Amino acid sequence: MPTVTVYRFRVYDITTDESRRSRRWGTLDGIKRAHGEPLEETATEVDAAVVGQEVEGLTTRDFDPHRRTGFQTKVTV
User: Cα separation of 15 and 26, whole Å?
Assistant: First the structure.
C-alpha cells in the first residue's frame, strides 16, 4: 500500500475576504495548485488511494485521516 503525506491548509475565501482552513487535506503539490498555504505541523501519512478522487492532489471534503475504518479486531485493556 503506497502512502503519501497530506496536510491541512489555509485558502483565501472570496465570499468572506478571509483566509480559512480548507475542508480538504492535500499533498504539497495539490495545495500549491489550490493556491493554499500548508499547515506543516499537520503532516500525516495516508494511503495514496484517498488522494485525487475528486480533485488532483486533494482529499474529499471533510476527510479525517485519523478516523479508523473497518471492524475492531483487538481489545486493549
Answer: 22
Cell output for 22: 480548507
pLDDT, tens digit, 9 for 90 and up, residues 9-33: 999 999 999 999 999 999 999 999 9
The closest of 30, 72, 74 to 9, measured between CA atoms, is: 30
Give the gyration radius of the chain's Cα atoms. Answer: 14
Question: What letter represents residue 60's amino acid?
Answer: T
Count how many Cα atoms sit within 13 Å of the Cα of residue 35 in the half-sphere of its side chain: 5
Question: Grid coordinates standing for 67?
Answer: 478516523
The kind and range of the H/E element at 11 are: strand 9-13
